[in-house]
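Hi V.,

Quick status before I head out on leave. The structure for the redesign project is tokenized and pasted below; the design run finished overnight.
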């Protein structure tokens, strides 16, 4: 694939002017002349983008105030503040120490909504209030402005910020395409739970992100497809994606979140693409969403190569019934060939969203809370894959484990530990990391015990060897030791993993057993972590 494709797409995202969605007002107090550009809408799903002046080159904001000092005197401490009743209290944007005659300031407002804005399920018309004042200003001189804008619901995705009557090119149609990354939610606990079940139940511990082998990535992609096919997920039809530059009915769309696609067992093409991208990202694979007129489909990139699958093959309209995973992948690759040809020829209708690339530019996913009801729905879906029972949920001891629990992992010369009921054991889970001889995973899919057997003579060498393997996969380990007890953290692009462990000398080297969880769950899970740690003998 042309290596210039992604920079071209990213440049389009950052360079497009968002001014088409603003309207202009003028105010004057006699001393200051004020022009305010205002947004027409804000999407709660992308609230972090609107709050971040560095995200996507600062393209998304609530308003920009252009202030010019038309007086003959220097104004002191010119202050701009704003509020959005019920959402954001009065907030000071800037104070200009001195503003000289004829000087102009441009003050952007990047509104910081609270995270619970992503719970908003209805759209509304909200009001923004602006106040501009300065030292010694008379009450009549203070400038007060207000305007209304649409605050969409969390599921509403607006494909473009350009006014409908001003849309003339496909660049206008896809003006907001980077924001689809905000609907890709790999850190959603429900999506993580679904991903872990996919890996364990259907993929038998596949670790494509660790192996970095494209063939393993393709297997993983096919595994996601098989999960949707075996659960009899329904493709809702090819509607929503704009089919032409005058397709105004499709410029705004309700997009179900990946957790809603999973538990509702149905999705549009863009929704299925976001689901695939979420699962791929949760597994450490770089997801791609391909956008073409009237359609979207998912894939990934690995080692400079691009891959795709036709996610709607589960029962797409006009697609000839339900496809096998192999046929869905073949169709996706065929579509990708056309995509590359048209994209390289400069056809603006064919564009892609590199999810991790736009994440790095500030278009990040919304935070979502765990949901026991949705986890139960995932359990039901996973059970449909094989007609059997699935892995336990936390605090639900009545459901049997996916495998009968092992009481311990033992060797005649090394450490052993008690495995809590319901945890799943995987022997040699990563083919390219032979020193990782076993992993035991809790039902929450987060708390993990790892067993390393390293053929070296002391603990320091063992930990250095483990760290070297981690470096090869983009991870780094830091730790402190106290006798045979070790405590530390492992850093990766997926976040920080906190752990505690013990080492012992064996006839074959050093055995290291560590138990831990992501840093944001470590304290919450400290009881079971300490229980496992104290059982290591």
């Amino acid at each position: 694939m042309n290596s210039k494709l992604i920079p071209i797409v990213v440049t389009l995202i950052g360079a497009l002017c968002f001014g088409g969605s603003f309207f202009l007002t003028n105010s004057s107090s006699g001393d200051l002349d004020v022009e305010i550009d205002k947004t027409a809408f804000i999407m709660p799903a992308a609230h972090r983008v609107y709050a971040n002046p560095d995200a996507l080159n600062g393209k998304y904001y609530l308003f920009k105030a252009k202030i010019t000092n038309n007086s003959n005197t220097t104004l002191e401490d010119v202050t701009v503040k704003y509020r959005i009743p019920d959402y954001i209290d009065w907030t000071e944007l800037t104070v200009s120490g001195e503003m000289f005659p004829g000087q102009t300031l441009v003050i952007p407002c990047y509104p910081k909504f609270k995270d619970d804005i992503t719970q908003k399920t209805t759209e509304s018309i909200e009001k923004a209030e602006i106040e501009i004042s300065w030292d010694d200003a008379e009450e009549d001189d203070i400038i007060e402005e207000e305007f209304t804008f649409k605050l969409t619901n969390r599921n509403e995705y607006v494909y473009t910020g350009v006014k409908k009557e001003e849309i003339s090119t496909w660049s206008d149609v896809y003006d907001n395409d980077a924001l689809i990354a905000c609907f890709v939610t790999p850190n959603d606990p429900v999506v993580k739970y679904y991903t872990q079940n996919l890996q364990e139940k259907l993929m038998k511990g596949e670790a494509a992100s660790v192996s970095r082998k494209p063939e393993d990535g393709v297997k993983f992609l096919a595994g996601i497809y098989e999960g949707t096919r075996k659960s009899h997920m329904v493709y809702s039809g090819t509607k929503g994606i704009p089919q032409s530059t005058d397709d105004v009915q499709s410029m705004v769309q309700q997009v179900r979140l990946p957790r809603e696609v999973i538990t509702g067992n149905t999705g549009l093409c863009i929704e299925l693409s976001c689901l695939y991208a979420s699962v791929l990202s949760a597994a450490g694979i770089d997801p791609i969403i391909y956008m073409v007129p009237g359609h979207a489909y998912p894939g990934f990139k690995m080692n400079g190569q691009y891959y795709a699958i036709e996610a709607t093959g589960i029962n797409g309209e006009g697609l000839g019934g339900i496809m096998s995973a192999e046929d869905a992948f073949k169709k996706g690759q065929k579509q990708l060939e056309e995509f590359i040809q048209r994209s390289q020829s400069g056809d603006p209708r064919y564009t892609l969203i590199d999810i991790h690339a736009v994440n790095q530019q500030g278009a990040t996913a919304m935070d979502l809370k765990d949901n026991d009801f949705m986890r139960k729905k995932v359990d039901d879906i996973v059970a449909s894959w094989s007609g059997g029972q699935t892995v336990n949920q936390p605090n639900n001891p009545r459901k049997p484990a996916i495998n009968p629990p092992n009481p311990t992992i033992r060797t005649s010369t090394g450490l052993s530990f008690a495995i809590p009921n319901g945890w799943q054991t995987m022997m040699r889970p990563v083919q390219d990391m032979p020193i990782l001889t076993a992993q035991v995973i809790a039902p929450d899919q987060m708390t993990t015990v790892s067993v390393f057997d390293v053929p070296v003579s002391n603990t320091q060498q063992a930990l250095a060897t483990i760290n070297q393997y981690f470096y090869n996969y983009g991870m780094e380990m830091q730790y402190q030791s106290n006798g045979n007890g070790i405590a530390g953290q492992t850093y990766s692009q997926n976040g920080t993993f906190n752990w505690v462990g013990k080492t012992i000398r064996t006839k074959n080297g050093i055995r290291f057993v560590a138990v831990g969880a992501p840093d944001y769950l470590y304290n919450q899970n400290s009881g079971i972590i300490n229980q496992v740690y104290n059982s290591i003998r």
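Above is the designed sequence. The CA atoms of residues 110 and 305 lie 37 Å apart.

G. will cover questions while I'm gone.

Best,
W.
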